[in-house]
Amino acid sequence: MIPEFLKIAGGTVYDPANGIDGEVRDLWMSGGKIVEAPSDFETRPARTIDAKGLVVMPGGVDMHCHIVGSKVNAARMMCPEHGEIIPSTTSTGLRYAGLGYTTAFDAAIAPLAARHAHEELVDTPCIDRGFFALMGNNHYIMRAIRQNEPDRLKAFVGWLLGASKGFAAKLVNPGGVENWKNRPEGNARDLETRVDHFEVTPGQILASVAWAADELRLPHPVHVHTLNLGLPGNWTTTLQTMKRLEGHRAHMAHIQFHSYDGGDGDESTFGSKVGPLVEYLNDHPNLTVDVGQIVFGPAIGMTADGPVGHFLGRLYGTKWYSNDIEQETGCGVAPIEYRNTTAVHAWQWAIGLEWFLLARDPWRIAMSTDHPNGGSFLAYPRIIKLLMDATFRKDALAALPAEVRERSVLRDLDRQYSLSEIAIITRAGPARMLGLTNKGHLGIGADADVTIYTPDPDPEVMFALPRYVIHRGRIVVEQGEIREATRGRTLHVAPDYDRGVEPDLQKWFESSYSIRWRNYPVEADTIGESEVVP
Amino acid sequence: MDPSRTVDDRRIWPDSVCTACGCLCDDIVVKVKGDRILEAQGACSIGEGHFLGNRRGDGPEAWIHGEPANFDEAVERAAILLAGASCPLVIGLQECTTEGHRAAVELAESIGGGLEVPGVSATILSLQSVGEVTCTLGEIQNRADFVLIWRADPVRTHPRLFSRHVLEPRSDFLPGGRNDRFLAVVDIRETTTLKEADLAIPMDEGAEVEALWLLRALVKGIAIEAEQIAGVALKDWQALVERFRAARYGAILYDGRSNGLSVRGIHSLVRELNERTRFVVMPLHSGGNGVGARNVLTWRTGLPGAVRFVEGQGPLSSDAGLPSATAADAVLVVSGNPMVMDNEPTTEVRRKIPRVLLTGNQEPHPQAAEVVIRTAAFGIETSGTVYRMDGVPLPLRAVVASRFPTVEAVLRSIEHRVRERRA
User: Fold this and answer.
1) Can you tell me the ipTM of this complex?
2) Are residues A459 and A380 in the same domain?
3) Which listed site, A72, A389, A532, B334, has its alpha carbon 20 to 30 Å from A105?
């Protein structure tokens, strides 16, 4: 059979992973992949998109969002009035495609509910997707640490990712959630806090799982939501966390929420401590971050950090959903409204932007709103404009309360992101951080995920309305309209691990869980089209 | 993956899920000979009835107006009824897997109809007003040193709940099992569960809401002057509140069919208790997969409970001033008990409207609806995903083959015919 080709002709290509910064080129694709131009000059593509004067980039990659599974669905049930920021699976997929994104990862799934998450992923069209499996408060992991059995821990992480068909190891408030399950004000305030019953510390959990992820050669390293999210003065814990991860690869999630100055109870001391943290990041290539930028307006706090959910529900006096998941994690959901007149919210907004503008290496900082925690992913074009247009940014800063306007370093930052840098933080960088060698670039053999934009003096307009979006070689968006809701693929890992651990694991499982060992793993034939990422 | 093995002439299915009550016990060993279930090892009496009561259905695959019909004729008639209606309604969905739920959502969308999961409005309204502080059953199993059963009789309705999850289990946190736990029961009548209680509080009928608000007040430390409230001495209520306070990880379980005000009262109480100690709450749901239906409807449409699809507008909340169930002019009951609708005030209206029934019942009433189409028996002859009452998803595996198609297959056939008719 003669392969069918799709050609994008004459576009201005931004493909930073391959060192291409705004060059006019043709792209050929076939069988869902980017391919060489056929050597036979007679070959005509089945379809040619004339991209003359248009900007061509790889499809966007969202490496940290919350779009599926039991907590998202609980939020949909609890807050239908916020349907715009927590849409159905169908709308989520279509909106990502409409935004030029073709890959997204849910950052927090309890393995016990992995089956549910996969059912929703299958129903999310137009994007390739996967999730990170929660293990920061996992009893078996804490037991293995206490008993000083790193190999057992490593095998368990491998087993858990394989059984849940997850993509990466995720830690959320390691040890702190377990303490909160045990005591009403229980939590972990620093890396040396003892975890009740288990006699281990958050610092040990961090270092052990980071080591295991490296040892298992997972494509994405340990993905860390550290202690004290959202609390004044939490920057010291964040810095300690980064130091504790030295010697390992690690990703620090929604770093904005972890970069606060200030002390207990005194709101006027709240402020930014991006300075020392970004300096540490700049000097330590083993680390990457995503920002978790907030946008003013409605959001939904949604986290595996149970005590944070409780904190938010109490702080704002809103409805509050909490779900403790046996042996694994917690879960909290509460609506939030970020206001630019509230000093703390204004600080959060400024702190996110300080991160983007002070991080030296765009390859190690990714765009995210921690959707929907900081706001919807639909805000990305607005955030891009804030990064590309210093005047626009300074005007926005001028509308904030005086203490933020005057104290944030933002007022002195004139940096403006280039198109190439935007391409890095929205696709090339996150794909590289995730270890997805087929995503985030347009080289031969890459997945044919391509977004074509119409240049516009206003970057928000340009990025909000892609002209074409191509997912695995199929045109999903054409002239700004959805043409086809493609079926995406679920990306997961299948690490090799020492199966000798299974008898002990099964014994522990049967004595602890409310379901049977046999019914826990998610079968490959139930997750739709999928791909094992090596 | 098929975990079954064959011993002599018997097929043995380990760790099978029982859908007879909301516990969804997943440790049942089902032994099958040919198409007959011989034994359901580990099942309670309700579960045994569910597995052993299954007989391979015989007779016609469908009826139209009570007359035997073949599958294609019945599907055709169902498609005509639904496509011709101006306000069709899809209802039921308790007795099918999420694969069936997805097909139901897609059919409702293509006929521009409404879709309703009955019996969930009280818990959803409570969730939407105060939220919910809950957990998976394993947390209660491992941590709950205090359990309050509020107007429910799980010993009868969920026979293995106490032994598997709530009272008996020993754990690292509660090594003494039952001895480390305190059971309180509040009810209006003498129940089997009440007899097991360490603290039993029989209250007056109709006083439920009053009692809940009293407890909320006591928990908040508000002084109450009364000798007796809801037919119970104040000091007994105070004793209960003392137990709340002494709990490290308390759990309140209540009947999933409770009325809206009670549900809200219970959930508010649990939220307030979390100011002082850890507390969780869980409704005890009946069997089937209503929890799965609610989940699928929510992730597919963004709206829980009830939606209406209006062409060009996507899914809309059915309480957004849109035609309600009473306005429906054709109803499709998907693999639920058709009687479920008869508990609702709209019965009279619905009795008059043309109805299509999909049922896995072995002896369906041929005149239960204008069109009756038989499906594989849920929980016995069907594979797929089901959701336990705490939201934990489980794999259901068919232990015997069926003569009849799955709900999903029937719904897709109807949808296909609807589309063909349109074209």
Assistant:
1) 0.96
2) no
3) A389
Instruction: Select from A88, A313, A318 the Cβ nearest to the Cβ of B302.
Output: A88
**Is A534 within the bounds of a domain?**
no
Q: Residue A424 domain-assigned?
A: yes
Structure tokens at A194: 């003892």
Say whether both A146 and A279 belong to one domain: yes
Planar angle of CA A456, A462, A466, nearest 5 degrees: 130
Going by pLDDT thresholds of 50, 70 and 90, the confidence category of residue B321 is: very low
Pick the CATH number of B62-119+305-422 from 3.10.310.10, 3.40.50.740, 3.40.50.970, 1.20.1420.30: 3.40.50.740
CA distance A450 to chain B (A): 27
Interchain contact B14–A (C-beta under 8 A): yes
Instruction: Please name the member of B3, B139, B301 whose beta carbon is closest to the beta carbon of A518.
Output: B3
- Whether residue B135 lies within 8 A of chain A, CB to CB, comes out as yes
A46 and A183 fall within a common domain: no
| Claim to verify: residue A89 and residue A236 sit in the same structural domain | yes
Is the pLDDT reported for residue B120 higher than 80?
no
Q: Give B263-287 pLDDT, tens digit per residue.
A: 999 999 999 999 989 999 999 999 9
Contact state of B317 with A327 under an 8 Å Cβ cutoff: no
Tell whether the model's pLDDT for residue A116 goes beyond 50: yes
Cis preceding linkage at A362, omega within 30: no
Backbone phi, psi, residue A104, to 5°: -155, 145
Whether A344 is in a domain gets the answer yes
pLDDT band at B422 (very low <50, low <70, confident <90, very high): confident
Which of B128, B278, B302 lies at the smallest CB-CB distance from A83?
Answer: B302
Adjacent-strand bridge partners of A105: A130
- pLDDT of the residue at A2: 65
Question: Using a CB-CB distance cutoff of 8 angstroms, which residues of chain B are in contact with residue A113?
Answer: 391-393
Query: For A216-251, how does the pLDDT look when each residue is reduced to its tens digit (9 = 90+)?
Result: 999 999 999 999 999 999 999 999 999 999 999 999
C-alpha B251/C-alpha B269 separation (Å) is 11
Q: Tell me the two tokens of residue A453.
A: 């934009």
Choose the mutation target among B41, B264, B392, B397 for the interface with A, i.e. most A CBs under 10 Å. B392
What's residue A1's pLDDT? 57
Q: Is residue A524 part of a domain?
A: no
Q: Return d(Cα B25, Cα B9) in angstroms, integer.
A: 26
- A172 and A53 inside one domain: no
Asked if B383 reaches chain A (Cβ–Cβ under 8 Å), the answer is no
B134·A91 Cβ contact <8 A: no
What would the CATH number be for the domain defined by B122-284? Answer: 3.40.228.10
Residue whose token pair is 């961090």: A206
Query: CA B196, B197, B201: angle at the middle one, nearest 5?
Result: 130
Give the minimum alpha-carbon distance from B271 to chain A in angstroms, rounded to a whole number.
Answer: 8
